[in-house]
Design goal:
Layout (H helix, E strand, L loop, with lengths): L5 E2 L38 E2 L16 E2 L14 E3 L12 E10 L2 E10 L14 E9 L2 E8 L9 E5 L8 E7 L6 E7 L5 E14 L5 E6 L5 E9 L2 E10 L1 H5 L7 E2 L4 E2 L2
Parallel strand pairs: 12-16
Antiparallel strand pairs: 1-2, 3-15, 4-8, 5-6, 6-7, 7-8, 9-10, 9-17, 10-11, 11-12, 12-13, 13-14, 14-15
């Protein structure tokens, strides 16, 4: 960990509202070889060693990044449910949801994105819909709720993927919070088999893909136009920034995945 320099746990460069990208609003970013420490409620300030921020200088290569600052939190009270291999059994009553179950070297989790059900009436305005993003981890014959959040919904729900991000056989759950333009994303959270967020990035209306050789490659809109392109990989016991460079709009948009995230080997929750 590096001390002294204080940075924001988001992208590496500031996003200008005038930049011609996604028109997005900013969201509030184991025992195995790629695990991270458990997380608690979101915090707004971390040290440079854990979360480089939008005002960071460009000498960020080698910095450690973690799940600090993410918008998930532990449940207010314990929630334990009998184990069921079908993760849809964990969707709350009165909600519709998509989910996936991931078994990793560090444990088994069920990740869920659910939306409140409504009875629609002709001629009446559509009521706001509550979203819940949930992570359960398996403990013996039970599912135990590890993390939850209730994003402010804009009728575009979070997207959820299974991804072997680091290409090391250790699958993760990846939550993507959409930007106002849903082709792009505002926030990305990587969740381990332990039920902890190990990597959190704010994308400010940008997007992320899997880097060549493994790891996460993020593209964050830059106030100078173009994108700040950053490669993050789990190495030497931590997620570390391996490279950071500015690329043009054309270079960035050539990589743009629909929905803000792409892993050609991954799968989306259903």
């Amino acid at each position: 960990m590096l001390g002294g320099l204080i940075l924001d746990p988001l992208g590496l460069t500031a996003c200008s509202s005038s930049a011609p990208h996604a028109g997005a609003s900013s969201s509030a970013g184991s025992t195995t070889s790629t695990s991270g420490p458990p997380t608690t409620a979101a915090s707004s300030t971390t040290t440079a060693s854990t979360a480089p921020g939008t005002t960071a200088p460009h000498n960020v290569v080698g910095l450690v990044v973690t799940g600090a600052g993410n918008t998930f939190a532990p449940p207010a009270s314990p929630t334990v449910v009998a184990y069921n291999p079908n993760c849809h059994a964990l969707v709350d009553a009165g909600f519709n949801g998509t989910c996936l179950t991931i078994t990793a070297p560090s444990g088994t989790i069920a990740a869920i994105v659910e939306q409140q059900q409504h009875t629609y009436q002709a001629g009446q305005p559509t009521p706001p819909s509550e979203e819940r993003d949930l992570v359960y981890h398996r403990g013996g014959n039970n599912w135990v709720l590890s993390l939850r959040r209730a994003p402010v919904t804009n009728q575009s729900e979070s997207r959820l993927y299974e991804s072997d991000v680091n290409r090391d056989g250790d699958a993760k759950a990846v939550f993507i919070s959409p930007a106002a333009n849903t082709q792009y994303a505002d926030e990305l959270d990587v969740v381990e088999g332990t039920g902890a967020v190990s990597l959190y990035r704010q994308l400010h209306g940008g997007f992320a893909t899997i880097a060549s050789g493994g790891g996460l490659e993020t593209f964050v809109p830059d106030a100078r136009q173009g994108y700040d392109q950053t490669v993050i990989r789990y190495t030497s016991g931590a997620w570390r920034i391996l490279s950071d460079q500015h690329v043009s709009d054309a270079q960035g948009q050539a990589e743009t995945p629909s929905g803000g995230f792409n892993d050609p080997r991954g799968s989306m929750a259903s």
